[in-house]
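ASSEMBLY PREDICTION REQUEST
Request ID: AP-0331
Submitted by: J.K., bench scientist
Number of chains: two
Total residues: 588
Priority: normal
Notes: Please return the full assembly, not individual chains.
Input sequences:
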Amino acid sequence: MDLIIPQINFSAIAPALTVMITAVVVLLIGLFFQKVQRELLAIVGIIGLIVSLGELGRMWGKDITGFGGMVGNDNFTIAFQMIFIIAAFLAALLSLNRIEDEYVSYGEFYGLLLFALSGIIVMVQGLNLLIVFLGLEILSISLYILTGFRKMRADSIEAALKYFLLGAFSTGFLLYGIALIYGTTGSFSFKGISSYVNANGFTNVLFVAGIILFLVGLAFKAAFVPFHQWTPDVYQGAPTPIAAFMSVGAKGAAFAVLIRLFVSVAAFSTREWTIAIWVLALLTMTIGNVVAIVQQNIKRMLAYSSIAHAGYILVGVLAGNEMGRSAVLFYLMAYTFMNLGAFGVVSYLGISHKVENLRIESYRGIGYKYPFAALAMAVFMFSLAGVPPTAGFIGKFYLFSAALKAGFVWLVILSVLNAVISAYYYLRVVVAMYMQEPEEGKVFELPAASWGVGLALLLAVLGVLYMGIFPSSLMQLFQKTAELISML
Amino acid sequence: MIPATNLLILGAILFSIGVIGVLIRRNAIVIFMSIELMLNSVNLTFIVLARQLHSLDGQIFVFFIMTVAAAEVAVGLALIISAYRLRATINVDEINLLNG
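STATUS: Completed
Returned structure:
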């Protein structure tokens, strides 16, 4: 029997390698210099992220594959990876905030954040279910630890335990799905699956069951309704920068795989699958929005809002055309800025790790006392609600017009209604900040802020406004990448 | 030789026992053991399929699953111990600070 050694091309995984090496370096710095400033750890991490962005820029347009076709980087994948690197960058800046003092002085924090990012990168560039699974697990295991990072707090550990048990449970389903797919198609690669479907369609019950189990595993990561129950608990218990990163990273990575699967397996545009995803998208956004209305805790509200946004993005995936895919990228980018920004303001407004001011009532009257933070929060809330001239509006406009073009008129009408419902609870925060008297007569006093969180908020506000006012250049770029999603 | 179908059915039964265990047991460690049972039933399925398809891919996948499961055990047991230290219980029904 001949042993064929596949072509190994390390440049294909250069961004992931860079992030992993940086993570190890950060871990070692934290280990050897106990008294090291956390700013230094963050800066080392951020340098690694910038190098890795540079690697991605170098790979742009070259369609580099490696490891015998198991990983590949077309422009579409590269755009996804860039979005996640920006998310990790903002999360690293947010973690410099003073209320995160309690735990981020350890090198492990930034190390694990970078490992989680490397997992996302591996998952997004995988052209093979084995690589997707590995990336997903690198991401998940890092996030389990990060969620429980405040290990002296019962709520943090509880959130981590719930996330861990449910996450491992969903991994079981994902793996059984992969096993069934392997058993019927004899292959782990998207290419093999797609040629199997082109030849046989969805006639084999075991294959269909495998795909459904695989999608359930992904749906858990992206928190689609009915697999969303863990989200609010985990976001509430996790450190705020980590909740922010999870809401973009874990969700977005699942979307990248979903789009890859739908593009490579064209037969997904059959009637049964379309109806299933239609219902999933509608349920996800409606339940997310309706339950968010009654939330009193701002982190839980943002968690339900992130569920609703996953529903909006699913509309773009369902559209299935190039416009839909570029709209998904655009929306994910906009969502990165507005959601990380909103979590950033939440973190900024905490007094200490004991008094975090997470109730929406505690925001009453801060508009006059902390004008910049309140203004930033207002921008993010308007953007999440989809009010022009913000990125959220343009993103929703692109998503829904792609779906209209694909003929999903009713779904678009219901999505717009959903966006109107969501405006209620987003504007409630703005109303509390500017139009209501503070609780107990006066607003809480905040100690001096750190530069990191200020920089992160500034970048997020600029990002939201830039994408809202000048969307065309970025949109054209994303459109080009979506046309070029050639690689299977 | 045992026919492949029987082994696949065994895998499916073990997987179902694991799922039922996760759903009805309330002790975090027992839930975790049920999850491990699910993963191992997947391993069995992969090996049987690899033999049937005459391809090595499935067997290689099993190594990755075992590695990942080991990493998950390390993290999971650490979390369960932390939870026990803070709450003196690992009954998942009593760990319920977060809800609303």
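REVIEWER COMMENTS: Residues 43 and 66 of chain B are 8 Å apart (CA to CA).
SIGN-OFF: pending second reviewer
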